[in-house]
Amino acid sequence: MPAISTADAESTDRVLVVERVFDAPRSLVFKAWIEPQHLVRWFAPRGFTVPSYTLDPRPGGGWRCCMVSPKGDEHWVRGVFREVAEPERLSFTWAHENADGALGHETLITVAFDDLGEKTRLTLRQETFESVEARDDHLDGWTSSIECLAEYLATLN
């Protein structure tokens, strides 16, 4: 099932919601979000690599990731976990890191993992973007990344 993405009408047009059903159990999908050995395999748009991903998956714990584009450009992002409720929910901040270490605009990501037996419905909500254009840029990135996650999970089953 392809990712379904919508702007959240309840709040603002600067909120992104992406949903996907995976053919994998919830515990495995959740682990793919909190274990570096899994994250480096899928946590970037298609064609990117993830040479570095560190995280401390607990409330108040930090995370930091480097995604390298096909052209070799490094994109660093980082944040702080707000909630880790295994295996049903994650919440963490997200901000791009500039070359000098300064952070750009921060958003909040909440990921819900709904148990559908041997399948899992993932709902990702990212809020609040500075603009609709920034939201749409992330829509493209998340859609591609989540497709990479689906392909990766298929190799683990």
Outline the structure in words.
The chain has 157 residues and is α+β, with helices and mostly antiparallel strands. The chain is 26% helix and 41% strand. The chain has three helices and eight strands, in the order ββααββββββα. It has helices spanning 26-34, 36-42, 132-156, and strands at residues 4-7, 16-22, 49-55, 62-68, 74-85, 89-97, 107-116, 119-127. The chain has an eight-stranded antiparallel β-sheet. Strand 4 and strand 5 form a beta hairpin. Helix 1 (26-34) crosses helix 2. It is globular. The two termini are 17 Å apart.
Write the layout of secondary structure elements.
Elements: E1 4-7, E2 16-22, H1 26-34, H2 36-42, E3 49-55, E4 62-68, E5 74-85, E6 89-97, E7 107-116, E8 119-127, H3 132-156
Summarize the structure.
The protein is of the alpha+beta class and 157 residues long. The N terminus is likely disordered.
Question: What labels describe this entry?
Answer:
single chain; 157 residues; alpha+beta; 8-stranded antiparallel β-sheet; 3 helices
Number of discrete helical segments = 3
Q: How do the helices and strands follow one another from N- to C-terminus? A: EEHHEEEEEEH
Low-confidence stretches: 1-11
Strand content: 35-45%
How do the strands of the widest beta sheet line up side by side? Answer: 1-2-8-7-6-5-4-3
The structural class is: alpha+beta
- Principal-axis shape equals globular
- Helical percentage: 25-40%
In angstroms, what separates the terminal alpha carbons? 17 Å
Regarding quaternary structure, what we see is single chain
Gyration radius, to the nearest Å?
15 Å
The number of E-state strands comes to 8
Mean pLDDT: 92
The major sheet is characterized as:
8 strands, antiparallel
